[in-house]
Amino acid sequence: MIAELGLAALWLAAALAGLQLVAGSLGLTARGASLAAAVRPVAVMQGALGLLSFACLVYVFSVTDLSVKLIALNSHSMKPLVFKVAGSWGNHEGSMLLWVTVMGLAGGFMALVEKRLPERTMLATLAGQAFVSLGFYAFLLFASNPFERLSPAPAEGNGLNPLLQDLGLAFHPPTLYLGYVGLSIAFSFAIGAMVTREVGPAFAKAMRPWVLGAWIFLTIGITAGSYWAYYELGWGGWWFWDPVENASLMPWLAATALLHSAGVLAARNALRAWTVMLGVVAFSMSMIGTFLVRSGILTSVHAFAVDPQRGTFILVLLAIYIGGALTLFGLRASTVTEGERFAPISREGALVFNNVMLSAILGIVLFGTLYPLVAEAMGAKVSVGPPYFNPMGALFTVPMLVVLAVGPLLRWRRDSFSRVGRRLVLPGMLVLAGAMALLLMGGIALLPFLGLALSVGLAVATLLPLQNRNLRRTPLAVWGMVIAHFGVAVSLFGMSSESAFSVEKLVAARPGDVTQVGPWAVKLDAVEPVAGPNWTALEARLLVRYGDDGKVMRLQPQSRSFWAPPQQTSESALLTRWNGQLYAVLGGEAPGAKAAGLGRADSRWQLRLWWKPFAPLIWIGGLLIALGGLLALIGRVAADLRRIVAKDKIAYRRERQGR
User: Fold this and answer.
1) Facing residues of 505 across strands?
2) Which of 209, 411, 446, 512 is deepest in the core (most CB within 10 A)?
3) Distance separating alpha carbons of residues 617 and 624, to the nearest angstrom
4) Nearest to 254, CA basis, from 339, 172, 180
5) What is each CA distance from 378 to 167, 193, 208, 289, 382, in whole angstroms?
6) Are strands 605-613 and 520-531 parallel, antiparallel or unpaired?
7) Secondary structure letter of residue 366 according to DSSP
């Protein structure tokens, strides 16, 4: 009955989305004004029903109800409970239900709390959100029903992909979906503002917290996903330009540009058309990512391959939403003026420059992601990877980082470099000193060289906006900007250091053998069998010592064998110090060991070892970027609440005086 309840709640939520669309659209006309009051309550109810439907799915997964087809295909009674629950979104249908649930909750929350927009724009925004939701409800109900029953029920389920049986799965997809759906709110705001022709500071101030929240979750999701793939897949890399990785990066790039553009519109009443266009583009990138991951045209550990019919359904939705929004923008573009003018050398000018750079990087990633798919459709096999993405992206990233250091020091509307030049002397000297030191070291490739040289100067430059300020009275939004930009410098240093100084060793070692990797001495002590709840493994006991330090530490990488479904995985072992990370992976027995009749104690085992200087800074920097966004969000929301309270007090005083 729980599955039927979930399906009924999904149908009711879809019906309410249709009602929300009709009431919101008619509420914009004089004849339908009476329907306007129903839009907000309907949006709240739709979100509640979506949540009920997803809760039902989580429940049937947690009890392993194998009469539900989705569970029989993607779960197993022997799985730990945490992976049963996480498995509810570790598949195609469940992930799409999570998508529409978060979208419904976001729309309901927006209907409850958003009071800054004119009511007509708010109605158009909620109608736009319902229009987007309807397509996904239709996709679930007609092409991807998560509650479909099996009769008879199988005795046991197929289980979840072992690579996804990790705590990272319980954290990574939901944060990404919160980001994607937050961008759907920005999309709806843009549609609503274009329909009512009310694009201005009020629109930007209302949209900005939603964009900022989406950007925070995207940042956390990408950071967590990078680290999850880094330690789970056992290949030692933190980013491979996999198309599914790119599918999350593209919306983040667009959201970053949108966030800064909305800030200019809110503060200076400029960049109106640019902000609206970025609102459309950001959600468009989310939709393109959804198509890539769920259409079946990609093969990836991250992707949920499905049949072409479902891919066609998503492609139709993508054409309707993106095509319709771009058409509306084309019709309304002439009525959206750019607002206040500003000089090229100003804070607005710096933000526009970096938005252009972000847009160029987005174009590079989009082209590199889609080109192999187009080429394959035409009968050619093409691989696009780091040799394309890294240098092409650097062409725009390096100037963007330079402007990132200067921009926050510039004044609004008009300024001069001569005024801020003195403050940039120290960062500039650090960049030159770092470059000279790296040249003396030699043997460093160009891109890591540029990253290392720029990162230290950038880190100092990002702190300059706090100079001569009372730190206790500095607004949280300023603290957020500084911390986020500082996080960029930290991540850049970690990426560049890992690329420039990593040491890798691939050895076939017997128990007792010692291998030197960077400053570490690694001794293979033994390889023993171990067992888990739904897997068995061979576990290596590694005794490691750093330099001349007498302290011996242990690493225990595993080669696991799962039986539901049957698959072998490598579980890496990591040891982190302040200056880097030792990374170990256990392979199989070296070829020839079994043929020679050697016992386990005498066998040679494949070990892959890395020393990655300062690699953890990659993810620490990502978390700092997200923390900066969170502080800025808290500061913006608190400021809005103070303004609302102040207005209420003024209105109350005037009412008292009138009496």
Assistant:
1) 609
2) 209
3) 10
4) 180
5) 40, 41, 42, 22, 11
6) unpaired
7) H
φ, ψ (nearest 5 deg) of residue 573: -125, 135
Write out pLDDT tens, residues 429-447: 999 999 999 999 988 999 9
Nearest partner of 544 among 577, 503, 589, judged by Cα: 577
- Phi then psi for residue 21, to 5 deg, are -65, -45
Strand locations in 294-363 (E): none
| Per-residue CA distances from 284 to 83, 259, 319, 344, 357 (Å) | 31, 16, 10, 29, 19
Per-residue confidence (pLDDT) for residue 317, from 0 to 100? 86
Closest CA to 194 of 111, 121, 267: 121
What does the alpha-carbon distance between residue 265 and residue 261 come to, in Å, rounded to a whole number?
6
- Residue of 391, 389, 500 whose CA lies nearest to 452: 500
Q: Copy the structure tokens of residue 119.
A: 């009511």
Distance CA 1, CA 397 (A): 54
Model pTM above 0.85: yes
Q: Are 466 and 593 in contact, with CB atoms under 8 Å apart?
A: no
How far apart, in whole angstroms, are the C-alpha atoms of residue 158 and residue 567?
Answer: 12
* Rounded average pLDDT over 141-160: 87
Q: Which residues contact 646 (CB under 8 A, 6 or more apart)?
A: none
Dump pLDDT digits (tens) for 551-593. Answer: 899 999 999 998 767 888 888 999 999 999 999 999 888 765 5
